[in-house]
Amino acid sequence: MKPLYLQYLNCPTQYATYDDFNKKFRITRPASFNFAYDVADRIAQEEPDRLAVLWTDETGACIRYTFGQLKRDSDRAANLFASLGVKKGEKVMLILRRHLEFWPILMALHKIGAVAVPATHLLTEKDVLYRVDAAKIQTIVISHRDEGVLKSAETALQKCDSLRCAMVLKGRREGFHSYEEEVARQSDVWQKPQGDAYAHNHDLLLLYFTSGTTGMPKMVTHDHYYPLGHIVTSLYWQQCEDGGLHFTISETGWAKSVWGKLYGQWLTGSAVFVYDFERFIARDILRQISEHHVTSFCAPPTMYRYLLQENFAGYDLSSLRHCAVAGEPLNPDMAAEWFKRTHIPLLEAFGQTELVVTLATFPFMKSCPGSMGKPSPIFDVDLVNERGESCPPGVTGEIVIRTDDGEPPIGMFCGYYDDPALTRTVWDNGIYHTGDVAWRDEWGYYWYVGRADDVIKSSGYRIGPFEVESALLEHPAVLETAITAAPDELRGQVVKATIVLKPGWEAGDALKKELQEHVKKTTAPYKYPRIIEFVSELPKTISGKIRRVELREKNR
């Protein structure tokens, strides 16, 4: 069968230039759309033996999971959840790591019309209680391997009024339903809801808690049209192929998972590869890519950095054709080393939990390592100054999306759940403010500077943390670094570098001086870190983002 994305486009699919792509590419908004029925079940009907997920784990287990199996299992799961009283619009939190059951359970919730709330197994009890109360979670499904989260759910059952049902994925636990035992007793025939009970279009599909680096997490909502926005993510940025196997490194609790392990890949005709692991080990990732013939790969720069610490000899990466990178800015030297070893460019992109891919390096563009690329044609992207005026090339401004010409584009969030006032702080008068600062060169490429709160103002200069971080990462001693502002009586603020060294390097004044001189030679001299602190690790959010706010507070 032809990839299903074709029926949702009313435009060419091949382009010679970015300008042609930006001008002509359009996603058609169907009259009715539900991903589970219109994509997953349709593939199962027309090609039941087609591979949906290739799942592996650290023990060497390998499961080829087809769309036919997905259809049967998701129908059983839908019947189970419905028997427990789960209805359209109810919130179901999923803490399922990288377990294979995530995919049929998610499709089951889409069929019922329940709102899926994926979450990470790294949540503390405080995190679980906050999320259950804030989102009014009615049901929670938890991995059997997460004793801490299971205990948190026990507390939530007692303290949170909305939560009425908790389920452990496998085995038995007092006070919990057992998904494994109960789903096996369900019929594999699901009756599609009719009339108002049928979930589609602008009904809520997903709710994600953002792992913000400041304040409490926000609740991002997406509707049933959202998966179609990932056609651009998968087809034109990650370059997933019909019949290919795509590997995005992400636990299912993060929004990145539906960017790279589900919607766009299946629409494009690619299967998804899942490696269920406890701890990231670079050589194991290389082995999985080699042994299972992965064709496209996506990971954050930090993981590429660790992969490049390994010797690639002995790993057959010949099946790998496309590599994407996102999550944080990319150091150009690292991109060059990856290309040297694999002959595959790292294609960068920018997006948020609130969006699909927003800026990217597309296949008909020259790759400029360090740049986020150019705007996706489904968004009207601009850079604006503090007065809301468009910035000319070379001038730093905030990345915004203009939505004042009608309905918000496919792939953009519906707002923050149950909080219109918070939504208006970022999306008002037809303009969505990302809070990210960048500049645009004369060829239209966007270059990341930092979060608006992270830009350093020193002696009249505006210094973006990424450029200094990038310079430091080029030094062989530096494994990780974060740049923040430190107060200074004369300059207002100065640049401070908090650095994690690679094994074998010794912290000291001599190395500080060497790193400062290195930055002066690599970028504008006024940007060099006047303060350097060596640490064993950087403070991070549960999603792995550096908590610069914590470092800034320490600087005060």
Structural overview:
The chain is an alpha/beta fold. The longest helix is centred in the first third of the chain and has 17 residues, at about 65-85. The protein starts with 17 loop residues before the first helix and ends with a helix. Strands 1, 2, 10, 11, 12, 13, 14, 15, 16, 17, 18, 20, 21 and 22 form a 14-stranded mixed beta sheet that branches.
Task: Give short descriptive properties of this protein.
17 helices; about 550 residues; five-stranded parallel sheet; about 30% helix; 14-stranded mixed sheet; alpha/beta; 27 strands
In summary, what is this structure?
The chain is α/β, with parallel strands linked by helices and 556 residues long.
Q: Give the strand content.
A: 15-25%
Q: So what's the overall shape?
A: globular
Number of strands: 27
Helix fraction by DSSP (H/I, runs of at least 4): 25-40%
- Average pLDDT, rounded to a whole number, is 93
- Over the alpha carbons, how many angstroms does the gyration radius reach? 23 Å
Give the number of helices: 17
Major β-sheet profile: 14 strands, mixed
Report, as a whole number of angstroms, the end-to-end distance. Answer: 61 Å
Given as residue ranges, the uncertain stretches (5+ residues, pLDDT < 50) are: none
Helix/strand/pairing category: alpha/beta
SSE inventory with pairings:
Elements: H1 18-24, H2 35-46, E1 51-57, E2 62-66, H3 67-83, E3 91-95, H4 102-112, E4 115-118, H5 125-135, E5 137-142, H6 147-159, E6 165-168, E7 177-178, H7 179-183, E8 204-209, E9 219-223, H8 226-238, E10 245-248, H9 255-260, H10 263-268, E11 271-276, H11 282-291, E12 296-299, H12 301-307, E13 322-325, H13 332-342, E14 346-350, E15 359-360, E16 371-375, E17 381-384, E18 397-402, E19 415-416, H14 420-426, E20 427-428, E21 431-440, E22 446-451, E23 456-458, E24 461-463, H15 465-473, E25 478-488, E26 492-501, H16 509-522, E27 531-534, H17 548-555
Parallel strand pairs: 1-11, 3-4, 3-5, 5-6, 6-7, 10-11, 10-12, 12-13, 13-14, 26-27
Antiparallel strand pairs: 1-2, 8-9, 9-19, 14-15, 15-16, 16-22, 17-18, 18-21, 20-21, 21-22, 23-24, 25-26
Helix pairs in contact: 2-3, 2-4, 3-4, 5-6
